[in-house]
Amino acid sequence: MQENVQGFTVSDNAARRISALLKNEHEAGSKFMRVAVEGGGCSGFQYIFKFDSIKNSDDLIFEKNDVSVIIDEISLELIKGGTLDYIEELIGSYFQIVNPNASSACGCGTSFSI
After folding, report:
1. Under CATH, what is the fold of the domain 8-113?
2. 67-97 pLDDT tens trace
3. DSSP 100-111
């Protein structure tokens, strides 16, 4: 298990939700969740969450409760020390990165600046 070895943590809530979603995605061949950071969004960088079955040579694997999350090395530098969480509220449910490197974030939490 590489939980927080490289400076990133997957919460129990996130692991449970990913596990449930992967059961639905299994027929499509998805094996893990990919977290990435790309330029864009209203604050400069945006988080990308998707399911994938291909691990690239620069991907690091973070495991929690038999669930794997992969993050490429460049994205990890922007979210190092962070946590992937799954939030359930009355108005909706969503994955969230708690990112200690972000100096600001947009209102919806999907983009940030450093």
Report:
1. Hypothetical Protein Aq_1857; Chain: A; (2.60.300)
2. 999 999 999 998 899 999 998 988 888 898 8
3. TT-SEE-TTSSE
